[in-house]
Amino acid sequence: MLNPEFLLTSLVVVLLPGAGVLYTLAIGLGRGFIPSVAAAFGCTLGILPSALAGIIGLAAILHTSALAFQIIKYLGVLYLLYMAWNITRSGGALDLKENAAPSPLWRIAVNGILINILNPKLSLFFLAFLPQFIEAGSNSPTLDMVLLAAIFMAMTFVVFVGYGAFASLARDFVISRPAVMTWMKRSFAAAFGFLGLRLALAER
What we know:
- This protein has 204 residues and is mainly alpha-helical.
- 77% of the residues lie in helices and 0% in strands.
- It has helices at residues 4-15, 19-31, 33-45, 47-56, 59-64, 66-88, 105-117, 120-129, 141-169, 171-175, 178-200.
- The mean pLDDT is 79.
């Protein structure tokens, strides 16, 4: 059932910079490695509802119901814009201070969950993506898709932890350079704003 095409395609999708990657990098830079693991865990867990929706066909509702799609889409847009604001404010996700006030790990994880839950495109992705890699003669296609979704989520967690580790290693370098800190904040905020705009313009 598992084939190199699935693993390679999944790896490319996971590596592509999106809201989850940006959030994990921001937490790694602003808070350190352990909080970035919490961010990676939250982003990975946030995939679960979309994966299940795609597997049992609920994503089709988003595809056929303009109202349902628009509601979830604009909730996602608002949350991405909130993340852009949160990046720039004092004490926010990218508060690059040597002794920055610690954020509870559960709160970091919940933010990561919300980033992926409030993206209707994710469930449509699973609806279109997973069936391509199910063998035609499979006796349990639903179970096969559950396994593929679990592998995709595991890859997401491992890659995101890697992103967080890289960001946390660069933290001291960034903290010691105020100009770089300012540039990083603006860049991350602009990236979240761009993702929000792109989602707002997305069609079903």
